[in-house]
UniProtKB/TrEMBL annotation:
UniProt entry keywords in alphabetical sequence: Membrane, Transmembrane, Transmembrane helix
Transmembrane segments: 20-39
Organism domain of life: Bacteria
Name of this protein: DUF3137 domain-containing protein
Source organism: Aquipuribacter nitratireducens
Length: 254
């Protein structure tokens, strides 16, 4: 704000009040910043306590992970950062969770704007790589694209097809992974607030959502991903070069 702007904004405000109002504005800005810092510190402390309870490692970041996978949310924008990293085991599987941030700039000159995007990412290592299957919440924009012929793999559940969009190069593998029991899990057990993108990306099954890691959401994602891996049909593991695992909720073969 220039001197002229201050004068204009302060027109009609008694001279003795203007410094007070400006001082209050500064206090509010500082207060908001302090509250944000306190909330972030408490969040990290909660994640650290969660990791200690489960014998996981905790680190403030790792630049080697900024391009962890070829798919979203990685590889977007600029100024990419991994700001929190948790590593450990979930049952018999290696697991990883992290806070991922990137920025995107649009416009130029006075209209140049930079926006920051934060994502929480959780991943489980697979016994062998599976064909890529991506499942994410369906938006109005997705429905418009489908009306113009965009591809979307559908299953025998109207509720699932209405809520989710499925993309895969191998339709047979996608249908095999999204068998009826998993579809029911994602449409009935999976709360709407947790419905986020997840996909098989080579040797890992990964899930991500907008925002930052929180212990409750992290644990929920790990449980869901573990159930997805455990339910992969035996024949798909064999076809992908691996061996089936002993799991009570695995889908039958074709």
């Amino acid at each position: 704000m220039t001197g002229g702007d201050v004068a204009t904004a302060g027109a009609g405000v008694p001279g003795t009040l203007l410094p007070v109002l400006l001082g209050l504005a500064v206090v509010v800005v500082i207060g908001v910043a302090v509250l944000g810092w306190v909330a972030e510190r408490r969040r990290r402390e909660a994640l650290f306590a969660w990791s200690v309870d489960r014998a996981w490692s905790f680190a403030p970041g790792d630049p080697r992970l900024v391009d962890l996978l070829p798919g979203a949310p990685f590889g977007r924008g600029h100024s990419r950062e991994v700001r929190t990293v948790l590593r450990g085991r979930w049952g018999s599987r290696e697991a990883l969770a992290l806070d991922y941030r990137y920025k995107q700039t649009s416009g130029s000159g006075k209209n140049r704007r930079t926006r920051t995007y934060d994502h929480a990412v959780v991943a489980l290592r697979l016994p062998v790589p599976l064909p890529r299957v991506h499942v994410g919440p369906e938006s109005v924009f997705d429905r418009v694209l489908q009306a113009f012929g965009a591809d979307d793999i559908e299953v025998e559940s109207h509720d699932f097809n209405r809520r989710y969009r499925v993309e895969a190069r191998d339709r047979r593998a996608a249908v095999a992974i999204l068998h009826p029991r998993l579809v029911e899990l994602l449409t009935t057990v999976e709360p709407a607030e947790w419905r986020t993108d997840f996909s098989s990306e080579g040797p890992v099954l990964v899930s991500w959502w907008s925002g930052a890691l929180e212990p409750a959401a992290l644990q929920h994602r790990l449980v869901l991903l573990d159930r997805i891996v455990a339910s992969v049909p035996d024949w798909l593991w064999r076809e992908s070069g691996g061996e089936p695992e002993a799991a009570p909720d695995r889908a039958p073969g074709p």
